[in-house]
Amino acid sequence: MPQNLKDHSTANRVLDAAQVLVKARGWSAVSYADLAERVGIRTASIHHHFPGKAELGRALVTRYNSTFQSELADIDKRSDGPVQRLRGYLTLLRAALADGGSLCLCTMLAADYEMLPAPMKDLVTKFNDINVEWLAGVLRDGAAAGRFVSVDDPITEAQVIFSEAQGAQLLARCYRDAARYDLVTDSLVARLTAPR
Q1: Gap between the Cα atoms of 53 and 153, Å rounded
Q2: Cα 154 vs. chain centroid, distance in angstroms?
């Protein structure tokens, strides 16, 4: 195998391991030693790809943001209307809970925000902005189609929805019970859905 392909594979394996561990433990509780053990390589190999934890974090959140945006685009393509788009979004965030022991990567990083390197902070904020802008578009489309109640300020309501979903993740994690996420998000959809 050519060295550059092998290096790319190793880097991705490190990022995969980092994503799992950070979603479960938080940024500060994950070390290169943890990653090396999980991936089955030496810490020096991780430093070859990511000289410092800031570089690792930047690569991790950049990849996560890109993947998340692709998943939002898939929701837009396969959904039949704004209500289904909103439900698809909430299902996407629910999937991050796994067995109730982890969170969406950027929800976890938001909790660790003050400990993050500056470039990671910017990327977490960008993730939040991506979510709010997408949700505001769904709200506008839903109100125009008569499927959602009309809201005065779609950006503010999108921030509320995003905050409720993040809070529901935290609640579900605290109890290790993803059904608690469903209770919150089902109520959220019911509140927004216009009577037919």
Answers
A1: 39
A2: 21
